[in-house]
Amino acid sequence: MGLALPQSFADCMRDETTAQEQLSTVWGTAPVALRDRCEGEATAGGSQSYVDLLTCVQMAEWAKSPSTATRLRGASKDRNSQ
């Protein structure tokens, strides 16, 4: 299926911290309904994830206006190669 090997704990925590920092810039301006929906999605699997929360907000923003969506950098194994 082309899936990458599991991340180390340190890599996972770094991704969560980065996502939390990026969320701090957009969370306050996101509509309450979007925040509620994304919180539900980010906790649906039983564990909370800032990466999932950020992805939900980014996807909603992109779906609203693909050409003007803020380009936030989410978690990615290739994030340092850009």
Automatic annotation (TrEMBL):
Instruction: Write down what this protein is called.
Output: Uncharacterized protein
UniProt organism field: Bradyrhizobium niftali
